[in-house]
Amino acid sequence: QVQLVESGGGLVQTGGSLRLACAASGRTFTSYVMGWFRQAPGKEREFVAGITWTGGATYYSDPLKGRYTISRDSAKNTVYLQMNTMKPEDTAVYYCAAKPTLPISDYYSDYNYWGQGTQVTVSS
Hints:
By secondary structure, the chain is mainly beta. It has no helices and 11 strands. It is globular. It starts with a strand and ends with a strand.
């Protein structure tokens, strides 16, 4: 049973930074793709970034490229999302997700496993 547990959310001021973590367990994730999505109130779930567990290839949502960085620590079975120069429109619940095969997808229904989400609020 794959489990994904996010942490690191909270309140940050405009221009600040935050790092989210997603601890993965229950499986060997060698072939997996890990993704971060976000969902603001009244909006659809939106792809943020994805990474291959093996090789560390990454793919970003174009509007977020340059401000957000996804990475993974295989020894800790943890995926991170570093968010810099944050804006009020980044306010959302951020979700970690996993899919067992390549390629990285920006479509939420391609992901089989989800964490419970962590709230990120950016104050203006």
